[in-house]
Amino acid sequence: MVEAFTPAVCGSRSRRRVALALFALGALVASAALGATLGLFGSLIGTRPALIAAAVLALMTALREAGLIRLAIPQSRRQVPERWSQEWPLPAWSAGYGAGLGLGFLTFQPVATFWVACAAALALGRPALAAACFALYGAGRAFMAVWPLRRQPDGPAAVESLVGRAGLMGRVNAAVLLLVVLLLAVAPAAGAAVTSLGHGFDPAADGKTLARARMSSGNVEVVVVPPAPDPPVPVSNADAPALDGDLLAYADDEGIKVIDWRTGDPVRDIDGAVSEPALDWPLLAYVKDEGSSTRLVLANLANATTRRIASVSSAGDLGRPSLHGGRLAWHRIMRGGSTICVLNLATNDRRVIRKTKIWVEANPSVTGRRIIWVEQRPQASYLRLRWLGSSRTRTLTRVKGRATFLWTTALTGRTAYVTKWTPSTRKSVLLRVTF
Amino acid sequence: MRRPDELFDGAARALSARLASGMTRRSFLGRMGGAVLAATGGAAVAAAVRPEKSEAFHFCGHIWTTGSCPNPLGLPRIDKNGFPLRPSDGHPIDNLGRAVNSGGWAVDGSGKRLRGPDGELLPRAPRTRLCEEWTHEHYGLDSHMQGAWYRCCGGQIRKLVDCCSPSKKRINGDASLTGYCWGGKRVFCVLYYDSGLKC
Question: Which of A85, A297, A389, B100 has the smallest C-beta neighbourhood within 10 Å, fewest atoms?
């Protein structure tokens, strides 16, 4: 490539500069596009497995670069088509060369680092950030088309000079890859990738199906979004959704309704001053306003029995309970502090997950193995995660400042959802956090 | 003949001076400050507190180096019971730093209760004392407000309070001093209360 961008090939020094600029542009755009694609794909798969794979790949390629193991790497043993520079106009072939090299896998690969970068972009799971990082790869390729000629204007001589340093570059590359292994191993939260899903609040999730509430023409409605290709299903005049398979529970002006969201058929109604449903059929948990107090109730809709779980005075708050995997979680916020509690329905074992007199611990979501909740402090709010049975707490994401807060949550498998909202504008978005 | 109010002021001033001379200045101010303020209506205390501008390390009146107690908005302003207030205007705030009404509900600038994205009223957040609860939870200390001293700040009397604990280290990380604490406790951090009394 160094030999392609000489005045002799390009026609003049000024044309050479134009060609280099277009080459660089092509390389940047192509590599950024590749990074964005990998990041987008990574956001759809598990982040943690991709991180582990990237770290393992980095270690193996480091050993390969150091000459300790033999490892074949996928590559196309081609070079850019020379005939392009003879048959195409300068802008076309120079940009085309840049794009071809910027994509990486279309030409010969002297080192395996490119594939480690691809794995890391997958693990990142964020298209924009992966595009920005991968654009550096394109910048590097453009740089190598210019740098060798800074002292040696003769193209072949410049290439010979580079080849003489191949051993040193290999050792440096091995050291860098070992550093990459270290960085991937200590990556905070092992890659909790955060993706914005657009407007909405009060998420509810079951597998790949997500429900959210949102404002529509001044009223609250619920939208259930199943996996593609099924279309979203809106439910008007509905709030605080809870999902369990094909069943959706929501609150409206009359109380709580449970429907089959695919068909719209009603399943159960609970009338009265009840709200904040949590559904794990046939169990339904909800909050009941009894005037001077608020009570958390667990109902069995199959045998019409109810059970009182917790209560607070009207000055307190029990929030939005979560019911899944044989566990019921809720918060309790009073003037003197806040608490996150989990009840094991099988054993009736009640545990306090978090208790504080100064922060707001709120809006838990639970599965059979994990629990998440939001911790609000004056300067920031945090989405916390804990494995049930462990005392260690991780932070999946956080929002700094006083203007915007994290709020209600949902949890399914290794995917958490959280509302991020701004009180001054009352605008809210849903975030998906994979861990 | 002196006017009745002048007689009263003179008696209160003399009483304060006699009490002060019988104890150390530190212990007198620490233990009696609140009672003096209430009993004399501020006149005697105003005379005892020089209306000078006090040098401050990080807030007016605080001329020592002990750091502020943990607080929602950066300055440890409290009401008379130790609950947090907004430093700029003394409005009650909750532990998240939001202005609250008399019922403890978060309100906006016009006094209306805050609502969530669904339009429903937001629940209350905890509102707890900076010394007894905040310091205790942050640092695991048995802490209590004890000693106090007074300065004239912004034309009104400010009461600076020691949050005292058994810890031999103060919030700064270095050795703590007894200050105005008693019962074996030492100064861990400081807070302040603006009385509104003119000086």
Answer: A389
A72 and chain B in contact, CB less than 8 A: no
pLDDT (tens digit per residue) in A384-417: 999 998 899 999 999 999 889 999 999 999 999 9
Nearest chain A Cα distance for residue B195, angstroms: 25
Higher pLDDT, A170 or A320: A320
Q: How far from A388 is each of A171, A281, A356, A371, B165, CA to CA, in Å?
A: 45, 22, 19, 7, 35
What ipTM describes this predicted complex? Answer: 0.72
A421 interfaces chain B, CB cutoff of 8 Å: yes
CA–CA separation, B199 and B190 (whole Å): 22
| B123–A358 C-beta distance less than 8 A | no
Structure tokens at B49: 């507190």
Can you state the percent helix, strand and coil of chain B, rounding each to 5? 25, 25, 50
Is the CB of A315 less than 8 angstroms away from the CB of B104? Answer: yes
pLDDT digits (tens, 9 = 90+) for A134-149: 888 888 888 877 776 6
Backbone angles phi, psi at A3, to 5 degrees: -70, -20
Single out the residue of B95, B114, B94 nearest to residue B104, CA to CA: B94
**Strand segments (E) across A118-246:** 193-199, 201-206, 209-216, 219-225, 233-235, 239-244
Q: Could you give all domains of chain A from N- to C-terminal order, each with its CATH number?
A: 2-190 (no CATH), 193-434 (2.120.10.30)
Rounded distance, CA A35 to CA A25, Å? Answer: 15
Distance CA B4, CA A216 (A): 71
Indicate the pLDDT class of residue B50, thresholds 50, 70 and 90: very low
